[in-house]
Amino acid sequence: LERLANYSPQAIGHRVVHGGEKITKAEAITPVLLQAIREAAALAPLHNPANLLGIEATLALFPDLPQVAVFDTAFHQSMPAHAYRYALPQYLYSEHAVRRYGFHGTSHAYVTERASELAGHKNEGGWLSAHLGNGSSTCAVWNGHSVDTSMGMTPLEGVVMGTRSGDVDPSLHLFLASNLGWDIQKIDSMLNKESGLLGLSGLSNDMRTLVEASENGHDGATLAIEVFCYRLAKSLSAMSCGLPHLDGLVFTGGIGENSAYVREKTLGYLAHFGFQFSKEKNDALPRGTEGRIDDGTGPQIWVIPTDEEGRIAKETRQVVEVSQNTSPEVSLA
Ligand code: AMP
């Protein structure tokens, strides 16, 4: 608030993790929307209540400012049923909203739009996106719309993450309960907090530490990086089924933006897509900058630093402008 003292914010954009099935885009905060966020808390018990606290605090501090919620799940509401339904009994979907939702929507939306803009495609065509941070997910985007993504009903599904396992055999739960006597909370906590890069390496969830340790001969770190990259490549290949045509692949997130090693290793498993990866450009790309790392003949490969805050500000501005039906010069907080 001190840093805002010399500015006059025109609106506030909030990141909200779960919008459930009802919310397909950024929306102005109203009592009805707050209720929808509350209802979706069953699907994101750690995130949505915290998001609501932030919204309530800023509503109290800035009662006259328009406020907008931008949802991590909203971008993926364009997925077709064959991508978002689990092969489970129908009533679990119709009565209990059990389906795939996907997350990291603002990031996938931003980086694929930015890459296609840099490629001169105006947000058209087919793009694969790999958001690789402590939480990681992949996404397929066709003409600016998400058609599939690797995270599911919760952010646990999909690729290997810092401390999350990603996909495992669902019968693992039965095995651990029957043989080790674990209860469901212990299993869930292990899969979310003790698995992924941390669990595999027995060392760290931080990719920088693992790359360094691997170079110094740490077998666990080497295996963790191998599994991370191979499963990431498998996920990207699976996502490609949602695209009629592949124009390019985008890497983002702390690992995707900064680790030339992970990008190279992952692309090593994707040669059959015709990517003409340039090791020279990949190694030379300064950390945290956008750039293209292929030789210009196959599908494009981009590194795009994500900008979730910028995307939230942009969507907030759009919602405010539509509701005011004007185009004011706004400086968004
Ligand atoms: P994020 O959640 O997007 O902030 O990303 C966090 C992840 O990015 C951590 O696993 C970091 O180890 C990883 N990261 C940041 N810088 C680098 C780097 N230079 N090389 C490899 N991984 C990095």
Overall mean pLDDT stands at 95
Helix % is 40-55%
Taken from the alpha-carbon principal axes, the silhouette is globular
Main sheet: strand order: 6-5-4-7-9-8
Strand content: 5-15%
| Number of helical segments with 4 or more residues | 14
Helix/strand layout:
Layout: E1 12-16, E2 27-28, H1 31-39, H2 48-61, E3 67-71, H3 81-84, H4 90-96, H5 105-118, E4 126-132, E5 136-142, E6 145-149, H6 172-180, H7 184-193, H8 196-201, H9 207-215, H10 219-239, E7 248-252, H11 253-258, H12 260-268, H13 279-284, E8 291-292, E9 300-303, H14 308-324
The protein binds adenosine monophosphate.
Q: How would you describe this structure in keywords?
A:
333 residues, six-stranded mixed β-sheet, globular, binds adenosine monophosphate, alpha/beta, 14 helices, three-stranded mixed β-sheet, single chain
Give a nutshell description of this structure.
Helices cover 42% and strands 13% of the residues. It has 333 residues and is an alpha/beta fold.
How is this structure best described in words?
The chain is built from 14 helices and 9 strands. The chain has about 325 residues and is α/β, with parallel strands linked by helices. The strands form 2 sheets. A 6-stranded mixed β-sheet has the order 6-5-4-7-9-8, with helices on both faces. A 3-stranded mixed β-sheet has the order 1-3-2. Strand 5 and strand 6 form a beta hairpin. Helix 10 packs across helix 12 (about 260-270). The chain starts with 11 loop residues before the first strand and ends in a 9-residue tail after the last helix. The relative contact order is 0.14. The mean pLDDT is about 95. Bound molecules: adenosine monophosphate (AMP).
